[in-house]
Amino acid sequence: MTTPRYCFPHKHLLGIEPLSPQDITALLDQAEAFEEVCERPDIKIVPALRKRMVVNLFFENSTRTRNSFEIAEKRLSAEIINFDADTSSLSKGETLIDTALNLEAMHPDLIVMRHSAPGAHALLARHMKASIINAGDGAHEHPTQALLDAYTLRQRFGRLEGLKIAIVGDIRHSRVVRSNLWLLTKMGAKVTLVGPPTLLPTELKDTWPMVDISYDLDAVIPDMDAIMMLRAQFERGTGQFIPGQGEYIRYYQINADRIKRAKKDVAIMHPGPMNRGFEITSEVADGPNNVILEQVTNGVPVRMAVLYLLSNPHGEQVP
Amino acid sequence: MSEAHAPCLLDPQQMDAYLLRVAREIAAAFGHDENLVLIGIRSRGLPLAERLGAKLGTLLGREVPIGILDITLYRDDLTEMAGSPIVRPTEIPFRLKGKTVVLVDDVLFTGRTIRAALDALQDLGRPKRVWLAVLVDRGGRELPIQADFIGLKLEVPLNQRVSVRVVEIDKVDGVFLEGRN
């Protein structure tokens, strides 16, 4: 009589690529239950991860992702260990595997890691019993960002399927874009990548042939339900790929004039931190179409959902 | 019925009659209490709370607010489960402070679900009192928890399972006795 209960079948969250549409829907549905916890008037804490140890292992700087994870862990009653590359033995030359083995000796249940090398998370997953959550790896994936973007879109439009979404700007250096491409295409959204040819590698079409590529933001705008602006990553060398900031602004900045030609309820997104006055103007960033702070707020319940679904030993499905 | 191998303890009419009796007992105890609310425990406590709410509405001539509680995150065996069960939202559309809460669940067995529900409620606010209504008390308690309003009271051997089915979830109403495996 009882139907088999769905169990999240993955031990790690290394990226969006391995997830099925059902897994993604389960994560987003689960985040809704945690949003209720986050909106409680008094006690925004549940005991779901009591007795669980979470290690936050950040080899690259991050303020919002790390804080968001830490809030999520606290709201789930986890024990938290913060481990910064600056203060750890890594700066003394310890290898990643040695660091992993030392961590393993503390018996953590979950490890949230940001690392600049795309394979670092899979490497750690092979050497440790803990579940590994990718909090960003180089220009490869940033799965929780894509999940919170999807959650924000679903909150706004009630669905992902059939939504027309432009991802605009520094596609080349963005890990957010890869996770979003996996997620949005798996869920049936129609994605258009927009940017200057130098920042828009056409090889992406090899992996995602269903995605449109455009160099003309003005032509794309009127049709879009959501426009996801990416941060120009000057620290990763974006400046070398564009002739000048003025030209980039003229063709690819989202500003009030461009918003006028967009759908009235278009959602303007940005993963942060923003370069105000470059890829986005303050009028737009603070304007009625922006959902940028919703994205930040939604990061917490989405990360709670990820931590919770990975927190129980992965095994056979139980009835 | 098609469930020939699962003995039927209550058919749909009997189930409704027992629910009406529970509703009458709640009305007798708290009918005068303006702060009376029902909170159904997911999954099957919710449709039962809705039915009790409808009956109380008729009996009392006023609407009794209904909330939904998901106790998954408060289970004492959560960390021992293989795979995390999906949690659905708790929806309490009123402030709990000062309320007379009647928790509603389908079957009272070990008492562990109710223990979890009391913990969950405590995080949501401080009601004036919390009482418990169940359709079936099947015995077998592992904690000092008892129901205040009981439809059907039984002593069922531990190797058997009392299964309450509701049309909202199971497409059929009724209470069945199933072998455990």
Question: If you had to describe this structure to a student in words, what would you say it looks like?
Answer:
The complex is a heterodimer of chains A (319) and B (181). With 319 residues, chain A is of the alpha/beta class. Chain A contains twelve helices and nine strands. In chain A, the strands form two sheets. A five-stranded parallel beta sheet of chain A has the order 7-6-5-8-9, covered by helices on one side. Chain A has a four-stranded parallel beta sheet with strand order 2-1-3-4, sandwiched between helices. In chain A, α5 packs across α12. The radius of gyration of chain A is 20 Å and the shape is globular. The N and C termini of chain A lie close together (11 Å). The mean pLDDT of chain A is 91. Chain B has 181 residues and is of the alpha/beta class. Chain B has one domain (8-76, 86-179): Rossmann fold. In chain B, 29% of the residues lie in helices and 27% in strands. Chain B contains four helices and eight strands; from the N terminus they run βαβαββαβββαβ. A five-stranded parallel beta sheet of chain B has the order 3-2-4-5-6. In chain B, α1 (12-30) packs across α2. The longest helix of chain B has 19 residues, at 12-30. The two termini of chain B are 22 Å apart. In chain B, 41% of the residues are buried. The mean pLDDT of chain B is 94. At the A-B interface, α1 and α12 of A face α3 of B.
